[in-house]
Amino acid sequence: xSPAIQDLQILHLEADDEGPSYYRVLVSxxxxxxxxxxxxxxxxxxxxxxxxxxxxLPVFPPDDLPSIxxxxxxxxxxxxxxxxxxxxxxxxxxxxxxNTHAATVDQTTSASLSLxxxxxxxxxxxxxEVEYYAQETTIYQRLEATAAVASQPxxxxxxxxxxxxxxxxxxxxxxLLEKIEGGRFPDGAVVKDLERCRDLVGRLHGLGILHGDLxxxxxxxxxxxxxxxxxLLDFESARIGAEQWExxxxxxxxxxxxxxxxxxxxVEEWVGELKY
Length: 276
Prior knowledge:
The chain is an alpha+beta fold. The protein has 7 helices and 13 strands. A hairpin with a 3-residue loop joins strand 2 and strand 3. It is globular.
């Protein structure tokens, strides 16, 4: 079989003329492969344009790729059932970063699984990212379990809606979250929001969870303070069972995080293609 007959579609790329370039590739409309290309094998012009690169790629062998193992939610959605927000022609990044996207679930899947059409999709683009979202999946499991037994649960995080899969359900690469409308994005929290942010962090610590990567963009604050829909985001570095001193240190550094003006943790510069 020639490379052209493989029916390849590049889902995501990070091209570099000085180091390795990385690609997430859909093969024959169903199998996903993760490849790296050493520098100087192809011209940079070819590396960034799928239409010229694809005919030059070899036939891909079978592989055994990592998967999120803690599949605790009953809902699984194939990545091909999602349409991701894209970088538009006006220079506005309509997604959140290269791993987190506003997304639309196709109508058939939405109806059959009782999912909202508009969601947030968060998933690994490359194999080394799987471990981050495996950890975050476990944190959401703890948060969802706590909310289920609380008499009057207050949100700490968006609702976890299900797992995102590849390879016809054989590999789990991420998850779907509810899309919270009315949130202050992408500006993030500021010092005047300190008490609202302390409330969220304090309730997270009350569950024995350390966030591990607090910054002002990890707070999604809803414009109407009386609605009680503020949430924390991004639990890749979170940890269950942290020591009390670690939580006190994290809370003590919160004000400085909200004063940051360097944009740490904010919307990333758009890289490569993200289109299904």
